[in-house]
Structures are given as C-alpha cells and as structure tokens.
Amino acid sequence: MAFREINSKMVEATVVPGQRLFSQRGAMLAYRGEVSFTPNIQGGQGGIMSMIGRRVAGEATPLMSVEGSGTVLFGHGGHHVQVVHLTGDTLYVEADRLLAFEGTLQQGTMFMGAQGGVMGMVRGQVTGQGLFTTTLKGHGAVAVMAHGGVFELPITPQRPVHVDPQAYVAHHGDVRNKLSTALGWRDMVGRGSGEAFQLELSGSGTVYVQASEEKL
Amino acid sequence: MFRMQGSKVLAVDMTGDAVKAKNGSMVAYDGQMAFKKLSGGGEGLRGMVTRRLTGEQMTVMEVRGQGTCWFADRASEINLVRLQGDKLYVESSNLLATDAGLRTGTTFTGLRGATQGNGLFTTTVEGHGQAAITSDGPAVVLRVSPQYPLTVDPGAYIAHQGNVRQSFQSGVTFRTFLGEGGGEAFQIRFEGDGLVYVQPSERNTVAGDL
C-alpha cells in the first residue's frame, strides 16, 4: 500500500520509480531518499482541457506531483487524516480536503447538478462547497483530511443516512445524494433547531463523517 | 442508549424516545428523526423568565425518532455521565446531550461563575439517565471526599456531581497587583463527597490574567 498512517494526523507514502503520487502543494513534512516535487500548474491529471474544466469548476486546488524513490511524510494544518482504499469504485470528495492520492487513480470533476438535479445544486450552495466536486476513480489509496476524527457509516438500500452538510467529508460507492430540508415555520421565526438542511445519502456504499461542524 | 463511537462522537440509539441535545450538534443519522428547538433553563413561563434573567440560555433541540443519531461538537472530547437521582452541575457550553427524562435547570453559582468567564449561573441536570458533556481534551474525573477536598482552576473546571460544597478561594497578594502573580490567583475549592470533571485546558478567565 502506498500510504501508511503514522498517527492520526500524518501519513507516510512510499514512492517508487514509475509510480507517481499527487499531493496538495505544501503538505510535505519530511522525506527520505531521492524524491522530487513538481508543482502541477494543471492542478492534477489530464490535459489542458481538464485544467480549464477544474478552473471553471472552482475545484482547482494547487497540487504537486511527487516522483522518485523514497518515503514522504504528509500532513496539513493539524487535521486528522483518513486513508481510503479504492478498489474500482469512485470516491467523491471536496478538492480542498484531498491531502494526497496515488497516480493510478483517475481524477475528475463532477457537476453536482448531475446527481440529485436542482437540489444537488442547492446542496452545493448551502454547504459552501460550490456546484462541483472532485471524483477519484480506480484502484489505489487516497488520504483525506478532516477536522476531528472521522467515522465511517455504511449506507444500505434499506437504511439511508442523513448527514449534516458541514460534517460531511466524502463518500464512495453507488450512492445518490440529495439535500433534504426540514424547514418549518419555526426556522422562519428564528427558532430553528439548527438542523434545517441535511444531506440524504441513499443506495449502497460508505460515507465518511467528521466529528465537527467546522469546515476546513 | 448513549454509546461512544471513538472519543469525539456520541451515538444514540433511539426507538421512538427522545433526547435533548445542543442545537446543531447532529452530524449524521439513519432512520427517521425529527428535530425541534427547545430552550434551556427549565420549562414553562418560569423557565423563560429565568433564562432571560440569568443569560444561561443554552439552545437545546429535542431529537425524537427511530434509528441512530450521531452527535459531535467541534471535535471536542465527549464524556458520558450516568445520573442516578443525583444532580450534575455543568457549564451550559459543555453540555452536549441528555436523556429526555432528565430535568435541566439553572442555579446561581456566586462569585465563582464570574471568574470562569461563563457568567454567574450554571446549568443543572437532575434525575435518572445519561448525559454527555464535552471537554477540550480528555477530561479527568477527580473524587472529592470529606478527608480530601479538591481545589480546581476555574478555567479547567467543567462539571461536578454529588453532594459537594464549593467555595471560592483567592490567592491574590500584593504581588498580584504589582503584576507578579503566578497566574493562579483564583481557585474553586470543593468539599464533601462527589466527583469533579476537569479538562486539560484552560478557558480564558480573569484569574488566568492575574
């Protein structure tokens, strides 16, 4: 495996020749061996067109590619790091939560409206995540950041899971998301319970939730 | 049923019953849940008047439904407290969730409150059931017995339960006025029989500056 969790806030990545890693720019803490860090103006994989796509989508986090042979330690801002292993499925995650991922994964940008229609767009606005989200597909490992610890919740067709949009970190699997509102007259008169918007995830897969309502 | 999922997430399994929780502290749920805002400081008109007067207005919501609900508050550590007819005194900002069967109220704390930077009033929780309190860092539970009184920094105090008398101690000397204080000008002294919860972190208090 490319990533090894040193403690809850640091991961160690093994870099071997011919295999590339991508990481958030400036997230390297230390390294051993011959490793080079190249700032990636395109902000990820793909050609110029994907770069433009990401710029337009506002999902362009400054990334760097890591190549060579050795081990690299990654960490950022004292946030908790969770390693997610993908085996052919797709992980949906916000670009600014991505710490590092293997080059074998295919990076893409998804329009939130494509999943959940108009409410998907509203969700993007409400959660402050914008209308687009980053997808990672294929076989490999991803290191995702979160404030506080992360816990996994399984989603099964019988049991949809509702998540506070601010506490949502990432999800993978065959999952549909939609924004459900519980807006009542109480919210209008300022007596809301603070849980007016929830992200409803249904289907089968896993959602990662952080122990905090703070955004990164 | 309250159970911990790690040290920072509280999972509550519900079967049609209800819990009271801090407003906006839900992070996820499955099943069917309804959220309704309540107000702390006791029920009814009397509760409303106390809230207005004391400023100890914790905004609470009532969560009712079937399934599991997960609560967390800004990645702070959570401690479970079991109450068997006794009374828990806790700062309203440190109270995360309680069983619906527990009564919450407000009491006057005297001079101690002012030094804690939390106002002159504190929240009480009473009855039979479980409560979850938050702390900045893992809290330690210290026992107070008649032979062994306990003295606590006001900024690190989060809650206490049992039959405990508290008094306020000041170590202010002329050095404090010269700006040479040790940073521990005020303390709370607990005497009697009970438990005190202390966090490994200090809030900003008047005492900390002296």
TrEMBL record, chain A:
InterPro entries, A to Z: AIM24, AIM24_sf, Trp_RNA-bd_attenuator-like_dom
Matching SUPFAM superfamilies: TRAP-like (SSF51219)
Lineage: superkingdom: Bacteria
PANTHER family listed in its UniProt record: ALTERED INHERITANCE OF MITOCHONDRIA PROTEIN 24, MITOCHONDRIAL
Name of the featured protein: AIM24 family protein
UniProtKB/TrEMBL annotation, chain B:
Name of this chain's protein: AIM24 family protein
Gene3D superfamilies to which the protein is assigned, alphabetical: Mitochondrial biogenesis AIM24
Pfam families with a match to the protein in the record: AIM24
Superkingdom of source: Bacteria
Signal peptide: none
UniProt source species: Streptomyces adustus
InterPro entries noted in UniProt: AIM24, AIM24_sf, Trp_RNA-bd_attenuator-like_dom
Lineage of the species this protein comes from: Bacteria, Bacillati, Actinomycetota, Actinomycetes, Kitasatosporales
